[in-house]
Specification:
It contains 13 helices and 14 strands. It has 394 residues and is an alpha/beta fold. The chain folds into 2 domains: 193 residues, 3-Layer(aba) Sandwich (Rossmann fold), CATH 3.40.50; 128 residues, Response regulator (Rossmann fold, 3-Layer(aba) Sandwich). The strands form 3 sheets. Strands 7-6-8-9-10-13-14 form a 7-stranded mixed β-sheet, with helices on both faces. A 5-stranded parallel β-sheet has the order 2-1-3-4-5, with helices on both faces. Helix 7 links the parallel strand 6 and strand 7. It binds phenylalanine. Phenylalanine (PHE) binds next to helix 12.
């Protein structure tokens, strides 16, 4: 047991990204002066912690988010920082694992002395991470976790995205009204809070329209064989399959469906948002639709600038993850400026007062539950890329 713990501690240590390691010259942890001073005290750089799936099957989520957060913080530092202090992003890898997410947030608070936490993407990771941030009273902003339970953790946990009851309604309405679909099969990841919640939300919105869920099947993240579930679905009169999963599994599911001759329309949510979906799914994913936070091809002037800057720096277009990462960082910075510093309760209060913040993904206003009330887009997969289809207002 002890051995195992030591091993985990060592692994976690090595997971702190080299590029963002503390250099020690910054005046100690977060510029802290001495023992009892809180994080952010003193005069050196101030650490903002980011916990993210930098590796693993959701690596694209963490990497895209991290790139955008760093761009945002660079910009803030370039124009003088916050109350005269420079910010420094320290990223800890969660590897897409819930236990690692808890370790990462603990480390970001205790060792790195973060004044605030950004992350995670995946709801099942923001839940354990958020519980620690709440217990330690350090504000956390998730860019992109959409499960309602995340912000229900408590008053220190925020998000800059919409939540799944809305996202489920968007896809239910789109299926019924735009695609004229009446009968849907659901294929969800039974280990993911996000997937279970979004499946339920879709069902809750689709059935009252007269639509029918004809069969529900499930898998677990990382499964490689989906043929039993898809065969069961094939044996029904479903016209579409709603697959609220993450891109790696969804790509493999699309492939298997094609191989088994299951020619149903695939529908999904924001968890599909990665170019890797097209790499893994190939032609099999063409013609599918999913809801999302952002469409680079239907961007506002502010979003266009972000897309261009991201592309210039990283050589690829950002996904919705990048856009949300940028917005999460900027909403946090705005709150720190409003708070006039980094004291946790003041930043928490300023975050809760976020109103009409002009983000890359739209206007952000924190509602009393610390969620952002925002529109969603529906994207269609055409020739291995996601194309803007429509916008749905809350
Ligand atoms: N909303 C997903 C979740 O809560 C994460 C996600 C957001 C994935 C946006 C891709 C894009 O788990």
């Amino acid at each position: 047991m002890i051995r195992r713990r030591t091993l985990i501690a060592l692994l976690t240590l090595s997971a702190v990204y080299a590029g963002c390691k503390k250099d020690g010259a910054a005046g100690g942890p977060a510029g802290a002066t001495s023992g009892s001073a809180g994080p952010g005290a003193g005069s050196g750089e101030v650490v903002v912690g980011h916990y993210a799936s930098m590796t693993g099957s959701e690596a694209h989520f963490g990497q895209d988010t991290d790139k955008a957060i760093r761009m945002a913080i660079d910009e803030v530092n370039g124009s003088g920082g916050v109350v005269g202090r420079k910010l420094k992003v320290v990223t800890v890898d969660t590897r897409g694992d819930a236990a690692e997410a808890a370790n990462a947030v603990t480390r970001l608070i205790d060792v790195e002395r973060s004044v605030a936490i950004l992350g995670e993407v995946a709801s099942s990771l923001s839940l354990p991470g958020g519980r620690i941030a709440q217990r330690r009273k350090i504000p956390m902003v998730s860019p992109s976790s959409t499960n309602p339970k995340v912000t229900e953790i408590g008053d220190y946990v925020f998000r800059v995205c919409f939540i799944d009851p809305f996202q489920g309604k968007v896809m239910a309405k789109f299926a019924k009204e735009n695609l004229k679909i009446e009968r849907v099969a659901v294929l969800k990841d039974q280990k993911s809070d996000y997937s279970i919640g979004l499946a339920d939300a879709f069902k809750a919105a689709f059935e009252p329209t007269g639509g029918k869920i004809v069969v529900e099947q499930s898998y677990s993240k990382g499964d490689t064989d989906f043929s039993a579930q898809l065969t069961a679905i094939k044996n029904t009169d479903a016209q579409a399959i709603f697959v609220p999963g993450y891109y790696t599994d969804v790509g493999a599911i699309a492939k298997t469906a094609e191989r088994l001759g299951v020619k149903l329309i695939l529908l999904g949510g924001d968890g599909w948002d990665s170019p890797d979906l097209f790499k893994i799914g190939g032609n099999a994913i063409n013609g599918a639709y999913f809801s999302n936070h952002f469409a680079p091809d239907a961007a506002t002037p502010k979003a266009k600038k972000f897309v261009a800057d991201f592309k210039a720096k990283h050589g690829v277009e950002p996904t919705g993850l990048g856009a949300l990462g940028w917005d999460a960082a900027m909403v946090l910075v705005e709150a720190m400026k409003k708070a006039g510093g980094f004291e946790a309760d003041a930043v928490r209060k300023a975050l809760s007062e976020t109103r009409d913040f002009e983000g890359v993904t739209g206007k952000i206003t924190m509602d009393p539950q610390r969620n952002a009330n925002k529109s969603a887009v529906v994207l269609k997969v055409v020739d291995g890329a996601a194309k803007y289809e429509t916008t749905v207002e809350p």
